[in-house]
Design a protein that fits this description.
By secondary structure, this protein is an alpha/beta fold. The chain has a single domain, classed as TIM Barrel. About 30% of the residues lie in helices and about 10% in strands.
Amino acid sequence: MAKKLFFGMLLSMALLGCTNSNKPVEGKNDNTGAEANAEAAAAAKADSAMNYVVKKGYIDSLSSNVEALPAYDYPAGSPVAKWGKLKVAPNAKGVRCMCDSKGNPIQLKGMSTHGLQWAGVANVTARNIKALRNEWNCSVFRYALYVDEEGGYAYNPQFRNEILEKVVKWTAENGIYLLIDWHVHKPGNPNAPQYRCHPTNGRDLAGDFFTYCSRRYANMKHIIYEVCNEPNWHYEGGPGVDWTTQIKPYCEEMLEIIRANDKDVIVVCGTPWWSSCPELVLGNEVADKNGNLYENVMYTFHFYSATHNDGRLADQPGNHRPDDFYKKMAKGDPKKGEKSVLELLPIFVTEWGTTEASGWHEFRPDLTDIWMDIMDGGNTGEQLVSWCNWSFSAEGGVCGALNWNTGKISPMDPEILTESGKYVFKRLHGKK
């Protein structure tokens, strides 16, 4: 959520909870006249747009016929050499979670890029990825590929044809996992034309991208896919993006494409409300055309500690959510017979921050500590939760790990780290 320019959204979001319809809780204001009419018109527009019919573009023959890279021999002692191709399997409590190739629960920890079309790409170098492994102790690297924003993937084929190819190679050389993230952001519906039938060329960018990747990297043990980053509200006031009618069908389409080329790679599905409400998936997980649940699938949860906590009012009014996220994710509600999300779903926290949701304000290591304990197995499912911190960049405010122009990343000058960067660096080394 950080890095995402939705400051106006945050105040309204503070008053919203997760509901089955993914619509805002009705307000208590007694609006009349023109204001009420305007709100009613906006609501009607949102409802009519929520379930629009998806128009799909074409998939390029170059993607559907791309040559697969050969299997890679990962360096001895590296995470990938040790754990192999990952899968989803039950832990000792029978809870589905990320496991190594032999079925032993493991936890990945690492960093996410910022938007590559901005300064984020400057940090994606062979030397820096080597430093993330050897100096930062990362076992995973998230490649956040924004699509339709200025200079994004839709307008710059270099992101796939050159940069992604290099990152796949560099992460393989260091034996760390690569999470390839299709960074749905604005618009927030993964079925929007900007992703499925782009106005510049009519291409199904999402289908084309995952066709290419799943063929190209089918032999690579270190690849993981995140098929949609954060399904969310459009910034113009609607519509909501529903799991059942919008997100799930999209994820199932991408899974069908990926499974045709790579039958067992882990695929991570985005969840409603900027991936903050994975509980809306319960009882309705992704399935193939025969109704069989897809295996080796995980679901996203994103948190920013000053926004997603136990509902307390943080120092920045409007930058909190009233939900008790700690309870919902880690403990459930035994009095109501409700289990925790981490007991019911395999979760990957593909993005989290030490601040409020915009990333610009309020560094809260105290609230982040609680999340770290939960992800380290402090939940009723005893699920070890893998994570990527936002972000390995000097962009995006307080939650960025790096300061501008203050020293080298490798060998690392300590002054290059922000307060958030220092916190995450310690956590990557198992220190509080």
